[in-house]
């Protein structure tokens, strides 16, 4: 049996951060979880904490359930996300090539999505931690654009601020489209998912 995909939504733990820009990756995973009608539960293997949901994603031909996935929301702070990701990839025997990390991206305009495999971390501490923990850059990233802060606001303060009310309708559409992209990667492969996302 082939390994499942590990789908990781980055963010910070607790209600204080739930609605912030830095937690948009976890918002996307909540949408995916609602589609598979499942609930997150704490990972039983111990170590650095994570809420996980093992599931089948999508439906193949003739109604056959889609591939296995493990949805994961680390319970650690963003800059030490690598510990839970490494623990889960080891526990479920998932190679780095089948890890997909959903995260916020300052260098993309709001409501913009991009898929890629590998590359640099662009100053994103969550990605840096995952790269170090896995010992590889060869995982897939789904980048969810949040744009740059207005005026002279510190980017660190900006990513930890809530989305404004005027942004929320667009955000709702974006997280649904991001959940679609997650499904496309798992069901059709990265290249087809990129073609669909980047040309639509």
TrEMBL record:
<dbReference type="Pfam" id="PF01195">
    <property type="entry name" value="Pept_tRNA_hydro"/>
</dbReference>
<dbReference type="InterPro" id="IPR018171">
    <property type="entry name" value="Pept_tRNA_hydro_CS"/>
</dbReference>
<keyword id="KW-0694">RNA-binding</keyword>
<feature type="binding site">
    <location>
        <position position="125"/>
    </location>
    <ligand>
        <name>tRNA</name>
    </ligand>
</feature>
<dbReference type="InterPro" id="IPR036416">
    <property type="entry name" value="Pept_tRNA_hydro_sf"/>
</dbReference>
<feature type="active site" description="Proton acceptor">
    <location>
        <position position="22"/>
    </location>
</feature>
<comment type="subunit">
    <text>Monomer.</text>
</comment>
<comment type="function">
    <text>Catalyzes the release of premature peptidyl moieties from peptidyl-tRNA molecules trapped in stalled 50S ribosomal subunits, and thus maintains levels of free tRNAs and 50S ribosomes.</text>
</comment>
<dbReference type="GO" id="GO:0004045">
    <property type="term" value="F:peptidyl-tRNA hydrolase activity"/>
</dbReference>
<feature type="site" description="Stabilizes the basic form of H active site to accept a proton">
    <location>
        <position position="104"/>
    </location>
</feature>
<protein>
    <recommendedName>
        <fullName>Peptidyl-tRNA hydrolase</fullName>
        <ecNumber>3.1.1.29</ecNumber>
    </recommendedName>
</protein>
<comment type="function">
    <text>Hydrolyzes ribosome-free peptidyl-tRNAs (with 1 or more amino acids incorporated), which drop off the ribosome during protein synthesis, or as a result of ribosome stalling.</text>
</comment>
<dbReference type="InterPro" id="IPR001328">
    <property type="entry name" value="Pept_tRNA_hydro"/>
</dbReference>
<comment type="similarity">
    <text>Belongs to the PTH family.</text>
</comment>
<dbReference type="GO" id="GO:0000049">
    <property type="term" value="F:tRNA binding"/>
</dbReference>
<dbReference type="GO" id="GO:0006515">
    <property type="term" value="P:protein quality control for misfolded or incompletely synthesized proteins"/>
</dbReference>
<feature type="binding site">
    <location>
        <position position="17"/>
    </location>
    <ligand>
        <name>tRNA</name>
    </ligand>
</feature>
<feature type="site" description="Discriminates between blocked and unblocked aminoacyl-tRNA">
    <location>
        <position position="12"/>
    </location>
</feature>
<feature type="binding site">
    <location>
        <position position="79"/>
    </location>
    <ligand>
        <name>tRNA</name>
    </ligand>
</feature>
<keyword id="KW-0378">Hydrolase</keyword>
<keyword id="KW-0963">Cytoplasm</keyword>
<dbReference type="GO" id="GO:0005737">
    <property type="term" value="C:cytoplasm"/>
</dbReference>
<keyword id="KW-0820">tRNA-binding</keyword>
<dbReference type="GO" id="GO:0072344">
    <property type="term" value="P:rescue of stalled ribosome"/>
</dbReference>
<feature type="binding site">
    <location>
        <position position="77"/>
    </location>
    <ligand>
        <name>tRNA</name>
    </ligand>
</feature>
């Amino acid at each position: 049996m082939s390994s499942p995909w590990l789908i990781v939504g980055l963010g910070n733990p607790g209600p204080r951060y739930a609605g912030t820009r830095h937690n948009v990756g976890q918002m996307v995973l909540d949408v995916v979880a609602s589609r598979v009608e499942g609930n997150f539960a704490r990972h039983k293997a111990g170590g650095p904490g994570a809420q996980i949901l093992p599931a089948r994603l999508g439906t193949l031909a003739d109604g056959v359930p889609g591939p296995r996935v493990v949805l994961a929301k680390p319970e650690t702070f963003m800059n030490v996300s690598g510990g839970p990701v490494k623990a889960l990839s080891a526990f479920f025997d998932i190679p780095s090539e089948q890890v997909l990390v959903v995260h916020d991206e300052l260098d993309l305009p709001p409501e913009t999505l991009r898929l890629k495999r590998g590359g640099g971390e662009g100053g994103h501490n969550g990605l840096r931690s995952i790269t170090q923990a896995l010992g590889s850059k060869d995982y897939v990233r789904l980048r969810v654009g949040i744009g740059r802060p207005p005026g002279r606001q510190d980017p660190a303060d900006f990513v930890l601020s809530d989305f404004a009310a005027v942004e929320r309708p667009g955000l709702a559409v974006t997280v649904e489209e991001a959940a679609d992209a997650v499904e496309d990667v798992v069901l059709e492969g990265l290249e087809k998912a990129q073609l669909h996302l980047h040309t639509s």
